[in-house]
Design a protein that fits this description.
This protein is mostly helical. The protein contains three helices and no strands. Helix 1 packs across helix 2 and helix 1 packs parallel to helix 3. The model has no long low-confidence stretch (mean pLDDT 91).
Length: 75
């Protein structure tokens, strides 16, 4: 049987968090807190290792970063 992965990307989670914040949905924001904490921790980890990436890894990481930013309407 084939399945479809409907798990939102981090950019899509960012959109949800942003929309809930704009609408004052405090309980929704509180429920998303563990996911947002994980996203920001991952961002810190990425920044920490960025200087040690190969050129190929840096290009791949930049492509993912740009795609996720576009999902959030920022890039």
């Amino acid at each position: 049987m084939r399945t479809v992965d409907l798990t939102p990307s981090w950019g899509e989670w960012g959109n949800l968090f942003y929309r809930f914040a704009l609408e004052g949905k405090r309980s929704s924001l509180e429920a998303l807190h563990p996911d947002m904490a994980k996203a920001f921790a991952a961002a810190a980890a990425f920044v920490a290792i960025q200087g040690s990436l190969t050129d190929e890894q840096r290009l791949q990481a930049n492509a993912v970063l740009e795609a996720e930013m576009r999902k959030q309407g920022v890039a």
